Amino acid sequence: MELNINGARLQVEADAAMPLLWVLRDLLQMTGTKFGCGIAACGACTVRIDGKAVRSCVTPVGGVGGKAIQTIEGLGTATRPHPLQTAWIAEQVPQCGYCQSGMLMAAAALLERKPKPSDADIDEAMTNICRCGTYQRVRLAIKRAARTKA
Amino acid sequence: MKRRAWLLGTTAGAGALLVGWVAMPQRSRLGLASMMAAGEGDIALNGWIKILPDSRVVLAMPRSEMGQGVHTALPQLAAEELDVPLSRVQIEQAGWDAIYGNVAMLEGNLPFHPLEAEREDGFGRVKAGRWLVCKLARELGLNATGGSSSVADAWDVVRFAAAAARACLVGAASLQWKLPAEDLRVAGGVVSHPSGLSLTYGELARSASATPPGSVVLKDRSQWRVIGQPAPRLDLPGKVNGTARFGLDVRVPGMRFAALRLAPMLGGEPGRIDAQRALAMPGVQRVVTLPAYGGSTAGVAVVADSFWRAQQAAQAVDVDWIRAPSAVDTQQIDASLRDAVVRRDGYRFYERGNVEQPAPAGSRTIEAWYSAPYLAHATLEPMNATARVSDGRVEVWAPTQVPQMCRAAAARVVGVPEDHVDLHVTLLGGGFGRRLEVDYVAQAVRVAMDVPGVPVQLIWPREEDMRHDFYRPMHVARLRAQVSATGEPVALEIKSAGDAISPRWMERGLPSLSGPIDLPDKTASEGLFDQPYGFPRQRMEHVFTHSGVPVGFWRSVGHSHNAFFTESFIDELAEQLQRDPVEFRRLLLKDAPRHRAVLDLAAERAGWGTRPPAPGRALGVALHESFGSVVAQVAEVSIDRGLPRVHRVVCALDCGTVVNPQIVAQQMEGAVIFGLTAALYGRIDIRDGVVQQRNFPDYPMLTLPAAPTVETYIVASERAPAGVGEPGVPPIAPAVANALFALTKQRHRSLPFAL
Fold it and tell me: In what residue span(s) does the Aldehyde oxidase/xanthine dehydrogenase a/b hammerhead domain sit (chain B) (predicted)?
């Protein structure tokens, strides 16, 4: 099967029922997308599919062929970081960091939909669990990125 | 002769040299250059500091990064004393020598009352106890990250090692140029002389390695440029681009994945196993039976070419589970703890005056019972470890707070000496005490033994992680206070009951050090016996129980529930005496100026008594000392659709000298969310030996929409650094409970809050 991940076309041999999360992590060695709960409850595995934030632990790979998949590895580059990544550093968001890939992908999908999100928009979009409790800095960083992007 | 004369110059200048036996610990932990791993072109100057050819500095890192910022704070100490920018310091995993052991963590477990420990005069028992434990800890060299002790432990040692390395480098230049050391300048990793001579650390490193440091002088705090600065964390770039490597991200060529499935009942084990169906599934390689390692429950693991296939196959293994001989039940435990408080004698952690003395005429007795449930850690990265066993050698990659204990556990499982185990510590996707256990490492190694030469990553599904944790133990306490007719505090008596953690942990991870009888475990009574409040008569005792539930250290440990008990009860007293909660505390803190200053700062910033909260909202306050730091929090709370809603938390603290105020603020913010999650939702229920909560929907976490804003204010201090990772947790539950009382006149005496 062919997958379009971060703009590259990749061939994988996988059972169509295999969740995208494990295709990324175990078959493609793309470990930036994390496993947290396996039931779409925590958001650590969030990726973007055709721009939308999707929980990859419950997304069968068979359904995403031909769609544009973006993972944390494709959000920005070292030389051209995404405005969210820059804002995340400026606000010193992460602690342990394990949930942050998913947070960033959810935030990226939000900003694409709502370039100037209100607090209510942020509340609605950011349902990911952060066990270290970085939420208030996540909110500040999203607002900062929205300002710099505009 | 000449060499000595030049070197003596290095002792001149500002700063004080620690003398006598106090200085010995630092020097004894300086270590040898040979203790650091040799790399291409790098030169070690002692057991902590290496210099690279381009003058970058490498610091040996014995502590695990689990979010608390230690991989930035410790390099800040080294950068300061070596006069290099923080960006020029990198870290590498420390080796296994005793110098890397965490002395402060063990010292922190001594059951001394802060009033005794603070006194300079007399109190030989405290001094002797500390001296002995520190000496033992240095000999033992237990490398562990816990007890909010990393900076406190590194404070003298890392600065001393860095200053010693700097002295060697300056000494080498002094010898080479035949110029007195005190005339040399050091900046940005370059040693220079006003005449124009200059050499970089990289150029000097080789000769510096043969130059003794002489007397080592630490910088005076007026000269600090890195310590105390809100330096950006060094670990964040990798955490925003997906390259940070946690345990689950270890990838070794040819590796396989194993899924764990433990007996559903705590202490159960597999009986008859039929693995035929599982083995026939695609990609499946092996089914391994696991005994109860490291105090965990027994079970099976399935090895396959992906975790997804391994997990499906693990569910397809047909197992007849054998029940444990006795089934634990949390309702029964709760009842037995209350019974223990009433009927059994406890260990007296503190006694002052005589609480049995008849109360003055007209005085009142106020009594209340409090309780807190079992809690799971729920680190977002589930338990996991990667292992390869071949030809009598073991290689392990583990997200762990106790690398040495993991190494010992791996060696025990395979039956090889510890030096046949190579252990790599990864980043931790949360620790909170769960990764002070070695069960998952022993299991991974056992699985790897069955596929020799193949690296295997064992992963716990979330459901196993939640149902087979080492839980924060359930505790109950009876608090009783006497107040005089005029409202003066007379006596405070607290009797609590619950399982001891430390001896159970020792049995699991350090069997050789574990004793036949349990010594009194301070963690049970911390936050109860060691209060700052000046009740003339006090007695705090704890009844140790043995409930059969696997229990472990949970962020802020005993303080996490005991602060809820005491700080809610203090509010009850204030209410009964019709006093303002802040004023009442101030009255009880006459002899505790440090606590009073923290309380005052929080109250002032929160507008306590000066700016009334918005209609429908109320403020609650709590003050608590833990891990050497004093934290006060004021929570602003309302009731939203029948549930408590915390809008704002003002947090003031005194944590001694601050190494990085940005990290301190991060930790306070995170601790509030961690403590609030527990106070609002956290409970583990066990019925017939089976943990009822399985995943996040049953064990909810606070999420962004419900998160309060946390403001952090730090009291300036010149004391040595104290804990930061945990002390923000204890006050939030009582602060919110006290605000809820102000709103509803209903007192919450058990957690989580039920409205």
Answer: 241-325
B647: tokens are 């809008």
DSSP, residue by residue, A65-89: TTSEEE-GGGT--SSS--HHHHHHH
Q: Which two tokens stand for residue A118?
A: 């209100």
Q: Is B661 on the interface with A (CB under 8 A)?
A: no
Is the CB of B68 inside 8 Å of chain A's CB atoms?
yes
Q: For B550-579, what is each residue's pLDDT tens digit?
A: 999 999 999 999 999 999 999 999 999 999
Could you say which DSSP state residue B359 is in?
P
Residue B89 has pLDDT above 60, yes or no: yes
Beta-carbon separation of B427 and A97 below 8 A? yes
| Residue extents of the structural domains in chain A | 2-74, 83-149
pLDDT for the residue numbered B88: 97
Smallest Cβ distance to B430: which of A31, A85, A131?
A: A131
CATH 3.30.365.10 for domain B580-755, yes or no, is yes
Please tell me the distance in Å from A79's CA to the nearest CA on chain B. 12
- Lookup: tokens for B437: 């256990």
Instruction: Tell me what ipTM this predicted complex has.
Output: 0.98
Q: What is the pLDDT of residues B21-53, one digit of tens each?
A: 344 566 789 999 999 988 888 999 999 999 999
Q: Do domains B332-374+471-554 and B580-755 have the same CATH topology?
A: yes
Report the pLDDT value the prediction gives residue B123, as an integer from 0 to 100: 60
B138/chain A closest Cα distance in angstroms: 29
Euclidean distance between CA atoms B531 and B38, whole angstroms: 49
Instruction: Tell me if the domain spanning B332-374+471-554 has CATH number 3.30.365.10.
Output: yes
- Residue stretches of chain A with pLDDT short of 70: 149-150
CB contact under 8 A, B703 and A128: yes
- Per-residue confidence band for B122, with pLDDT thresholds at 50, 70 and 90: low
- Partner residue opposite B674 with nearest CB, options A42, A101, A133: A133
- Minimal Cα–Cα distance from B249 to chain A, Å? 6
Do residue B241 and residue A75 have CB atoms under 8 angstroms apart?
Answer: yes
Of B751, B755, B708, B738, the residue nearest B618 (C-alpha): B738
Reported as a pLDDT band with limits 50, 70 and 90, residue B116 is confident
A104 and B430 in contact by Cβ < 8 A?
no
Domain ranges of chain B: 2-102+141-240, 247-323+385-467, 332-374+471-554, 580-755
A52 Cα distance to chain centroid: 9
Residue A54's pLDDT is 98
Per-residue burial over B526-544, b = 16 or more CB atoms within 10 Å of its CB, e = otherwise: bbbbbbbbbbebbbbbbbb
Nearest to B669 among A32, A85, A133 (CB): A133
Answer for the pair B396, B421: CB distance below 8 angstroms, yes or no: yes
User: Among A25, A27, A129, whose Cβ lies nearest the Cβ of B380?
Assistant: A129
CATH of domain B2-102+141-240: 3.30.365.10
Query: Which pLDDT score is estimated for B109?
Result: 84
Confidence label for B18 from pLDDT (cuts 50, 70 and 90): very low
What distance in Å separates the CA atoms of residue B613 and residue B609, rounded to the nearest whole number? 10
For residue B200, give Cα distances in angstroms to B77, B187, B217.
Answer: 20, 10, 21
Fold of B247-323+385-467: Aldehyde Oxidoreductase; domain 4 (3.30.365)
Q: Is the peptide bond before B644 cis (omega within 30 degrees of 0)?
A: no
Query: For position A150, what pLDDT does the model report?
Result: 53
**CATH tag for A83-149 (out of 3.30.450.20, 3.30.470.20, 1.10.150.120, 3.30.200.20):** 1.10.150.120
| pLDDT above 70 (res B700) | yes
Judge whether A129 is closer than 8 Å to chain B, CB to CB.
Answer: yes
CATH of span A2-74: 3.10.20.30
pLDDT surpassing 80 at residue B417:
yes
For the stretch B646-681, pLDDT in tens is 999 999 999 999 999 999 999 999 999 999 999 999
